[in-house]
Specification:
This protein is mainly α. It is built from 10 helices and no strands. The radius of gyration is 20 Å and the shape is globular. Keywords: Hydrolase, Membrane, Protease, Transmembrane, Transmembrane helix.
């Protein structure tokens, strides 16, 4: 009986045991992936600018660019999966009891909001305000029914699934092998935020990136990350639609 109790206690203590080690990319492959991401952004940006000359519907082109960016990331992930013979679990897609860890997700989200509100207040006191011509402001600030549905689909569903696979499962997961957890967290969060190409929102997205790394490192799964990322984007989308609509 004592032996059974001791065994039961060990299982409870290791509630989220470290799974089989993630597959990681070597430096050459990792830099190739990062280069591929940059190429995607450049090609789509140049293509959008070219289309604006012959079809100056800015709103439609912004949506086209946003969705094509996410689908290009999906193709990059699938290509890597096929070439390297990875399973989805190798990217970090492992099941966890979401209902049980939901309070920690909400708490982490609340902390990011407190930090980001402090950042906004600081900028406001410095006489700075969000740019009204920013792409994200133009997209998320639309309150019409169709636009809101597209925004929720893009920001609340597609982006969290794709970006968490790319930036946390793949990039952070590989960087952690070479430069340690904290350095990898900072670098991956900076890449995640920087690739949104929005100076005003760099710090809030960097904070979100660190929070997402924390969840991924704690639960060894991307599901909590997607939940937090989606929650953050949905709330931001609804707030933007309300205040600018």
């Amino acid at each position: 009986m004592d032996g059974e109790n001791e065994h039961h206690e060990v299982i409870e203590f290791h509630e989220y045991p470290e799974p089989q080690r993630n597959r990681t990319l070597n430096w050459v492959d990792l830099l190739t992936v990062l280069g591929g991401i940059i190429v995607i952004y450049i090609v789509l940006a140049l293509g959008t600018l070219w289309l604006m000359k012959i079809w100056p519907n800015e709103r439609v082109l912004m949506y086209l660019n946003a969705f094509l960016t996410q689908f290009s990331f999906i193709l990059l992930i699938l290509l890597l999966k096929v070439v390297r013979h990875w399973k989805w679990s190798d990217f970090g897609w492992r099941s966890v009891p979401l209902r049980k860890i939901l309070p920690n997700i909400v708490k982490t989200y609340a902390i990011t909001w407190v930090l980001n509100i402090g950042y906004v207040i600081f900028l406001y006191k410095q006489g700075m305000s969000p740019p009204t011509t920013d792409v994200y402001t133009k997209l998320l600030g639309q309150s019409s029914g169709v636009a809101l549905i597209l925004n929720l689909l893009l920001a609340g569903v597609l982006a969290p699934l794709v970006e968490e696979t790319m930036f946390r499962g793949l990039i952070y997961g590989s960087l952690r092998t070479y430069c340690g957890k904290w350095t990898a967290a900072v670098i991956s969060a900076a890449i995640f935020s920087g690739l949104h190409f929005q100076a005003y929102g760099f710090i809030p997205r960097f904070v979100l990136g660190i929070a997402l790394v924390y969840l991924f490192d704690k639960y060894k799964s991307l599901y909590p990350n997607v939940a937090l990322h989606s929650l953050n984007n949905v709330v931001a989308t609804l707030i933007a639609a309300k205040f600018t609509g």
